[in-house]
Write a structure and sequence with these properties.
three-stranded mixed sheet; hypothetical protein PF0899 fold; single chain; 3 strands; 106 residues; alpha+beta
């Protein structure tokens, strides 16, 4: 069981789920959730799911791993994550840009 082979299978699985590879650093999976249904009986499948979860988190998505119901096969699916509202800011919280004048060049 090599990690490189698991990564290849994880990338292939994500592509089959409609999540093709993108350029490095893109957060294109915000608002998406990968649901992994894993019974833990096959360590190689668990390793592939772990690598896929790492890829999805790096691309801004959420990951949920659940145990399957009785008789349900292990699988993965992509669903839209519920939109979470940003936390309200207090009036005296620091802003991204302060009101001070920019540094003067000499």
């Amino acid at each position: 069981m090599s990690w490189k082979r698991a990564q290849t299978h994880a990338e292939s699985m994500l592509e089959n789920l409609g999540l093709p590879p993108t350029k490095k650093g893109r957060k294109d999976l915000r608002g998406k959730r990968l649901v992994l249904v894993d019974d833990g009986l096959n360590p190689y499948r668990t390793m592939c799911f772990t690598v896929a979860a790492k890829i999805v988190r790096r691309r801004g998505g959420e990951v949920e791993t659940v145990k399957p119901a009785e008789g349900e096969p292990a699988h993965a699916k992509v669903v839209d994550a519920p939109a979470s509202a940003p936390a309200p800011r207090s009036p005296n919280a620091p802003t991204l840009r302060s009101g001070k004048a920019p540094y003067q060049r000499r």
